[in-house]
């Protein structure tokens, strides 16, 4: 099997066409929605309003403003030192998965994006920030199961839901009690999800993560940084695991085979292109029926989403016809 690659040349290094963040941030509008952002906004050397993206508090407050202004998430916060995600990139992952769902709809049923709570999604590693479920429920009305091995992160994500009660009905949080497992213990018997997503830990060790942060910030500041302050933060399980991204994704693919009929589309971010060879080899070993790679970019950062399914084309069509009738119905 040779994986097909869905290319979007005109947008390869840009945000998704449906992104709310394709232009510059409109800081006065964001401040109107979230006044606490105001002290962090100042003119940069080019005369444009901006924030200090090296300041963790400024980055977190910008996220609060973006979530409130664009996604109607009124109350959002995370504990100190937990991952503060870049919202435009996270939203893009969801937009591309919406395209995957749309492209799975048989032609006679149209080419609409399935929306609404009957579309169920599994976020592997939901984190303290809960960002994928928050964005996915607000953008497409989907419902989510968010799993994590860290009970503190789940407590923080639960607080976000408690402060935004309208989200409670569509987001369920589950503790993965076995750190070596991904789907087992989370997906229940007889439970089905339409896609899974994951932002896997990238580094293989704390030392590697530290070295990567030093290198990144030194390049950005054009001088040696010895003790980096992570503007986006991150706990150990968020940033590294044994074997790093490559090993984690391999494990995910192998375990996904056991849940071949429980999930339509499995997916993961793959940050390093060199890891794709191993990813494709593992997908071939588990006999995935359909594999796609979707490039995505944000500024100078280039990543990609790898999606796979074990369902044959007839089985995919059966899934859509039997489960997505409500999701494909035009709004009144």
From TrEMBL:
| Any single GO BP term | rRNA base methylation
Q: Which domain of life is it from?
A: Bacteria
Q: Where in the cell is it found?
A: Cytoplasm
Region annotated Disordered, chain positions:
1-21
Q: Which Pfam families match?
A: Methyltransf_10
Q: Does the keyword Translocase apply?
A: no
Q: Does the keyword Transferase apply?
A: yes
**Catalysed reaction(s)?**
adenosine(1618) in 23S rRNA + S-adenosyl-L-methionine = N(6)-methyladenosine(1618) in 23S rRNA + S-adenosyl-L-homocysteine + H(+)
Q: Which GO terms describe its molecular function?
A: 23S rRNA (adenine(1618)-N(6))-methyltransferase activity
What SUPFAM superfamilies does UniProt report for this protein, alphabetically?
Answer: S-adenosyl-L-methionine-dependent methyltransferases
Q: Where is the composition biased (Basic and acidic residues)?
A: 1-14
What is the predominant subcellular site recorded for this chain? cytoplasm
Q: What keywords sit in the KW lines?
A: Cytoplasm, Methyltransferase, rRNA processing, S-adenosyl-L-methionine, Transferase
Q: What is its EC number?
A: 2.1.1.181
Cite a GO CC annotation: cytoplasm
Supply the InterPro entries for this chain.
METTL16/RlmF, rRNA_lsu_MeTfrase_F, SAM-dependent_MTases_sf
Write down the Gene3D superfamilies for this protein, in alphabetical order.
Vaccinia Virus protein VP39
- Family named by the database record: Belongs to the methyltransferase superfamily. METTL16/RlmF family.
The record's function comment reads: Specifically methylates the adenine in position 1618 of 23S rRNA.
Protein name listed in UniProt: Ribosomal RNA large subunit methyltransferase F
**Species this chain originates from:** Catalinimonas alkaloidigena
Gene name in the database record:
rlmF
């Amino acid at each position: 099997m040779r994986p097909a690659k869905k290319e979007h040349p005109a947008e390869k290094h840009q945000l998704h066409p449906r992104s709310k963040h394709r232009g510059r941030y409109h800081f006065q509008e964001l401040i109107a929605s979230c006044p606490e952002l105001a002290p962090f906004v100042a003119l940069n050397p080019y005369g444009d309003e901006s924030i200090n993206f090296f300041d963790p508090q400024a980055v977190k407050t910008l996220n609060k403003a973006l979530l409130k202004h664009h996604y109607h998430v009124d109350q959002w916060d995370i504990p100190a030192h937990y991952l503060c995600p870049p919202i435009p990139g996270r939203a893009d992952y969801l937009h591309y998965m919406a395209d995957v769902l749309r492209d799975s709809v048989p032609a006679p049923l149209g080419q609409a994006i399935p929306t609404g709570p009957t579309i169920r999604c599994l976020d592997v590693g939901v984190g303290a920030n809960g960002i994928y479920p928050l964005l996915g429920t607000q953008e497409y009305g989907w419902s989510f199961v968010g799993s994590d091995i860290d009970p503190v992160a789940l407590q923080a994500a639960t607080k976000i839901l408690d402060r935004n009660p309208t989200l409670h009905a569509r987001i369920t949080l589950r503790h993965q009690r076995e750190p070596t497992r991904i789907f087992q213990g989370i997906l229940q018997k007889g439970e089905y999800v339409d896609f899974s997503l994951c932002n896997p830990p990238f580094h293989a060790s704390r030392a590697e993560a530290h070295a990567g942060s030093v290198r990144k910030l030194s390049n950005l500041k054009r001088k040696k940084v010895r003790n980096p302050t992570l503007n986006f933060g991150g706990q150990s399980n968020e940033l590294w695991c044994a074997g790093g991204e490559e090993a984690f994704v391999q494990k995910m693919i192998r375990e996904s085979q056991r849940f071949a009929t429980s999930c339509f589309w499995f997916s993961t971010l793959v940050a390093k292109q060199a890891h794709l060879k191993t990813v494709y080899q593992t997908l071939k070993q588990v006999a995935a029926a359909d594999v796609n790679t979707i490039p995505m970019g944000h500024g100078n950062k280039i990543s990609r989403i790898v999606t796979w399914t074990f369902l044959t084309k007839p089985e995919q069509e059966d899934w859509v016809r039997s489960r997505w009738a409500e999701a494909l119905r035009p709004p009144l």
